[in-house]
């Protein structure tokens, strides 16, 4: 199981109504591919973040399926249209069943 | 989207199988997706990639020579704002990275970029 899994987000706190903003996300995670071996020659089991879902007031922004070919500490930069004040919800799904969630409020100026 | 437990996946689909599953066997008609990658990647463990397909509903990103060819699949929702995304990928060896997009009108677009990998992202 991955330890010290920490999501990080960068997005503005405010936006104009209808503005398209950039969002950058990173989650610290080894993205263990299942191909590496440990010092004893045993295969280290696969353990990756397999999905990232981003919504704003429950409306879909982006939904990503990740494979083992995404680098460790998965980073994504993308855009979102802000239709009004509300809350972004970011959910990362781990192979081990863990779900890491972050929420960010955004105000409309 | 409930994935099988990893050991139950006996055989990974090849890039060709993934392409057929995405396109339904239809040859992508044209342009509409761009793929930005370095020509030479010193470190195959972390190669920056940017994708864009204006109006697209989804993009499939493939590295056919990786042990698991499907790098990622992006589905854009109504609030995606701009159908563009950047991330970092592992490339096991020098190869042609492929992006397929399903555009707003339902048509398909395809592009690919050759990337020379100096140190392969082993375990990709």
TrEMBL record, chain A:
It holds the Pfam family SoxZ. Residues 10-102 form the Sulphur oxidation protein SoxZ domain. InterPro entries: Ig-like_fold (IPR013783), Ig_E-set (IPR014756), SoxZ (IPR030995), SoxZ_dom (IPR014880). Coiled coil: none annotated. This is Thiosulfate oxidation carrier complex protein SoxZ.
């Amino acid at each position: 199981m991955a330890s010290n899994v920490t999501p990080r987000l960068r997005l503005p706190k405010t936006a104009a109504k209808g503005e398209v903003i950039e969002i950058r996300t990173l989650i610290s995670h080894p993205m263990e591919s299942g191909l590496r071996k440990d010092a004893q020659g045993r295969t280290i089991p696969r353990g990756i973040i397999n999905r990232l879902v981003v919504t704003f007031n429950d409306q879909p922004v982006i939904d990503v399926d990740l494979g083992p070919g995404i680098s460790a500490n998965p980073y994504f930069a993308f855009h979102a249209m802000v239709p009004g004040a509300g809350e972004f919800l970011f959910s990362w799904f781990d192979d081990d069943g863990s779900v890491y969630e972050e929420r960010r409020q955004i105000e409309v100026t | 989207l409930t994935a099988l437990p990893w050991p139950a996946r006996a055989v990974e689909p090849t890039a060709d199988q993934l392409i057929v599953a995405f396109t339904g066997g239809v040859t992508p008609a044209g342009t509409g997706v761009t793929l930005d990658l370095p020509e030479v990647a010193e470190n195959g463990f972390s190669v920056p990639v940017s994708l864009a397909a204006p109006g697209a509903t989804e993009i499939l990103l493939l590295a056919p020579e990786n042990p698991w060819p499907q790098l990622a699949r992006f589905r854009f929702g109504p609030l995606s704002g701009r159908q563009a995304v950047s991330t970092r990928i592992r490339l096991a060896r020098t190869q042609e990275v492929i992006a397929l997009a399903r555009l707003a009108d339902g048509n398909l677009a395809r592009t690919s970029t050759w990337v020379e990998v100096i140190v392969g992202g082993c375990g990709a």
